[in-house]
Amino acid sequence: MLLMEEAERIALEEHGSWKISVISGIGTRNYYRKLGYELDGPYMSKIIGPEP
Predict the structure, then answer these.
(1) Domain count across the chain
(2) Domain residues for 38?
(3) Radius of gyration of the chain from its Cα atoms, rounded to whole angstroms
(4) Do the domain assignments include residue 52?
């Protein structure tokens, strides 16, 4: 399991979050895109559950 997969699980299951965002430098954005994240202002974000 990737570290980001565990972070997504914790955010969803333990904190009830529906979206996760990370601060990402320009050089790491492609890495996050491969994991399903999209550019969201200065962050890379991913919807991980239904909106409340």
Answers:
(1) 1
(2) 3-47
(3) 11
(4) no
3-state secondary structure of 21: strand
Classify residue 14 as left (phi > 0), alpha (psi -120 to 50) or beta.
alpha
Q: Which H or E run contains 40?
A: strand 38-40
Residue ranges of the chain whose pLDDT lies below 50: none
Tokens of 3: 């570290």
Cβ-based burial of 37 (10 A; exposed 0-12, middle 13-18, buried ≥19): buried
Residue 32 resides in a domain:
yes
Predicted pLDDT at 52? 80
Residue 34 lies in a domain: yes
How far out from the chain centre does Cα 35 lie?
Answer: 8
36 assigned to some structural domain: yes
Number of neighbouring beta carbons within 10 Å of residue 33: 13
